[in-house]
Design brief:
heterodimer, A: 566 residues, alpha+beta, Heat Shock Protein 90, five-stranded mixed β-sheet, 18 helices, 9% strand, B: 208 residues, alpha/beta, five-stranded parallel β-sheet, elongated
Chain lengths: 566, 208
């Protein structure tokens, strides 16, 4: 264990993990108490799930609880937690009239199960263990749920035989304990592990609909399990089909509620099944207690393992997708900010115009008043112009703030012509400085398309700036950029936006590389503009492409589909 | 004729505000919404200066400055610009602009620049008037009198001039007296100054 305690000490002190906070001088009182109480209750549950009259527990959760506690705690806390379980173990076992030696023997075998399982897991996964990847889940299943119960059961049965408690044979004992404890490890440990890793703020942020869905899922699952496993069976022929009845709910949990939801659903099903079986109900009743228990445990384990793995894989994939989306958002934002940086000179011009008008108007008014030559009508005009200039400056700031903001994509109905005006407004100063004349050819009426305003404006800005850059080498009076919007007749209600410049254009060879990331023809370009633009338009279910007559100019076209069904 | 300030800016709000400000400070102001409009409408004979934006759609401020430099109209230019591009301001100043103000500017700077520009225009117009008067008198000289004049101005003695022209010193003296009378100069110093003024104007500043 020493090597592991070293690694856990390396896991920075003070790290927050799943609600437990560890500091260098951590007090273990609360976790230890929790383990003691939990162990006691788990043992009571284990006793309750015993098939009468033969005393075989079908599910023995205390060991699984210990395993979960060890996996959640850093290695140096393990001895504390195991020690905390002893009083609970003594309390619950001595009540049932078992000799003290046997009680202590069981304590040793129970602890060894948790230690073997947790030790194996810790050897491969540093603390803390999270069931959020297939690797972690696999290691947990093999180490914690299989190897722990398996190895410790030989020890347990040996102790029982040595002490001479009971009349059952060694291999019989080994088999019974393996199945019972494996099922417990599969049911209880993932439940505790996944529930402990739930982030409370995220739970609070969840919408009521999610809670309603969870309630529906668990109500449906509980009802189905009740019908299938807790009612007298009239015909054995229906049994195989009935076994599949809870599966849809488990898949639902895996798809929508992650490992924690799935572990909870499995726990519900296990409890319902065992409850029915120990009361002589459900499809497993009818054979000898030992056979009944074995059948049921195999069935439940066979369901729990794939469902847990499915939930983990889905969760992992969702997380990867979320990461990718977050990265795309970041990249999009970065390239937008970089683009606005290029425009900063023109934007300064756009702000300085109204500021000049305001200052000069105000100073003119000052003189008019000081000279007593102020005609009230002129003063009214001056004030009107000051207000107009101020509003114009405010508008520039508003547009910029929207573009600088980094946020989630928000789809809404948009007027493409309005977007074009906004974009041309932002680049106006730059267009003037670069002597680029805009020729707008905007369709009178267009269907509103569904899209994210900021991202679409970013694409148009990118195309306008590219066009201006492309025309930097030609005579100023020839720099003309045509912006055209039109309805695409063949595609019902789709809108096309085209930007056509009079620059040198591009060859087919260049076009092949144009949309590749980091391809650029500009001395200071990143080469991300068009590739990000295309990604944005694809996310809008639209198309972005270019066409060119080399030497005469290039055109870039966006087609955005009309919203369907509305 | 009263000097007038021609303000050119494509932004109507800015144009109106500059019109009001300069008028409130007692200037005569004409406004134009583009360099093209100025070229078409302004009266080249009116003295004055130009206050204009550097970057405007169509003909830009720098282009108008060049166009004026190639014409007879050399009215001084004050540039105002919304962006402080060092390169553009250097080009403007090299091309002979009086001042280069970055928007938004204080009225004191604008008034100072406009006053300096008007003063420069007045001085250059006065110089022009003097030059044309002297040129007129120069045109009344005979070729021989011109030969004498150019050599007098170059600081040569009558004896040397006579030798160069292959004539008698006495004859040179006569030519010289007649030339001085026609040019209405009493002293050699006056003659030299007038000669300097009438030298052909330096060529238009090179366009960067």
């Amino acid at each position: 264990m020493d090597s592991h305690s070293a690694s856990s000490a390396g896991a920075s002190p003070g790290l927050t993990h799943a609600g437990w906070q560890f500091s260098p001088r951590a007090t273990w009182a609360a976790p230890a108490l929790l383990v003691a109480v939990g162990y006691y209750l788990a043992a009571r549950i284990g006793f309750a799930f015993t098939l009468q009259p033969y005393p075989i527990s079908t599910l023995w959760p205390p060991n699984a609880l210990l395993l979960a506690a060890l996996l959640l705690a850093p290695t140096r806390a393990w001895w504390w937690l195991l020690a905390a379980a002893l009083p609970a173990h003594l309390l619950v076992e001595l009540q049932s009239g078992v000799p003290v030696v046997m009680v202590l023997g069981w304590y040793i075998s129970n602890c060894s199960e948790a230690l073997i399982g947790a030790g194996l897991v810790r050897a491969f996964v540093p603390w803390p263990l999270r069931l959020d990847s297939l690797r972690n889940a696999g290691i947990f299943l093999f180490g914690g749920a299989l190897a722990g119960p398996l190895v410790s059961s030989f020890l347990d049965a040996a102790l029982v035989s040595l002490i001479g408690w009971g009349e059952r044979g060694y291999w019989d004992l080994v088999g019974t304990r393996i199945f019972s404890n494996t099922l417990a490890a599969l049911t209880v440990a993932p439940l505790i592990l996944t529930l402990a890793s739930i982030e409370i703020p995220r739970l609070r942020a969840a919408r009521t609909v999610r809670f309603a869905e969870a309630a529906a899922l668990f109500a449906g699952l509980a009802a189905t399990c009740l019908v299938v496993f807790d009612l007298p069976q009239f015909s054995n022929h229906t049994a195989p089909a009935l076994f599949y009845a809870p599966l849809p709910f488990l898949v639902w949990a895996a798809l929508r509620f992650g490992p924690a939801g799935t572990a909870s659903a499995i726990a519900v099903m296990v409890v319902a099944t065992i409850f029915g079986t120990v009361n002589g109900l459900g499809p497993f009743a009818g054979s000898t207690p030992q056979e009944t228990a074995r059948e049921m445990q195999l069935f439940l384990s066979a369901v729990a393992v794939p469902m847990l793995l499915l939930a983990v894989v889905l969760h992992d994939r969702a997380r990867v997708e979320l990461d990718a989306r977050e990265q795309r958002l970041q990249l999009t934002h970065l390239s937008r900010v970089a683009m606005l940086g290029e425009l900063s000179g023109g934007i300064a011009h756009e702000l300085n115009q109204p500021l000049t008008a305001i200052l000069s108007n105000a100073q003119a008014a000052q003189h008019l008043i000081a000279n007593k030559s102020a005609d009230p009508e002129i003063l009214v005009e001056i004030l009107r112009d000051i207000i107009a200039a101020d509003q114009r400056a405010g508008e520039v700031i508003r547009r910029l703030r929207t573009l600088f903001k980094r946020g989630e994509t928000q789809f809404q109905p948009l007027d493409v012509n309005e977007l074009v005006h906004e974009v041309l407004g932002i680049v106006h100063g730059d267009l003037v400085t670069r002597s680029v004349e805009i020729v707008p050819e905007l369709a009178a009426t267009l269907t509103r398309i569904h899209g994210d305003r900021v991202e679409l404006e970013q694409v148009m800005l990118n195309l306008v700036i590219n066009a201006c850059d492309a025309m930097a080498g030609i005579a100023p009076e020839q720099r003309r950029l045509t912006v055209r919007t039109r309805k695409v007749d063949v595609e019902d209600g789709a809108v096309q936006i085209s930007f056509s410049d009079c620059g040198p254009g591009f060859t087919p060879d260049q076009y092949a590389k144009l949309f590749e990331p980091f391809y650029t023809t500009k001395p200071r370009g990143l080469g991300l503009g068009l590739s990000i633009s295309r990604a944005i338009i694809r996310a809008h279910h639209g198309r972005l492409w270019g066409s060119s007559t080399p030497g005469k100019g290039a055109s870039f076209h966006i087609v955005l589909p009309a919203p369907r069904g509305r | 004729m009263r000097a007038c300030v021609s303000v050119i800016d494509d932004d109507a709000l800015v144009l109106r505000s500059l019109d009001r400000l300069l008028q409130s400070r007692g200037f005569e102001v004409h406004t134009y919404s583009s360099a093209q409009a100025f070229l078409e409408q302004h009266d080249a004979s009116t003295p004055g200066c130009i206050v204009m934006d550097l970057s405007m759609p169509g003909l830009s401020g720098l282009e108008l400055q060049q166009a004026l430099a190639h014409s007879a109209d050399r009215r001084p230019v004050v540039f105002i610009s919304g962006r402080s591009s060092v390169e553009a301001s250097v080009r403007a100043m090299k091309a002979g602009a009086v001042d280069f103000l970055t928007k938004p500017f204080d009225e004191a700077d604008l008034v100072a620049a406009v006053s300096a520009a008007l003063e420069k225009d007045r001085a250059s117009r006065e110089g022009l008037a003097e030059r044309s008067a002297i040129n007129l008198r120069l045109s009344t000289l005979t070729p021989r009198e011109r030969d004498v004049l150019s050599r007098v101005v170059a600081g040569k003695l009558n004896k040397q001039i006579a030798a160069e022209l292959g004539t008698a010193e006495k004859t040179v003296k006569v030519h010289r007296a007649r030339m001085m009378r026609k040019m209405q100069f009493d002293s050699l110093a006056e003659l030299v100054r007038a000669w300097t003024v009438t030298q052909p104007l330096p060529p238009a500043p090179p366009q960067a």
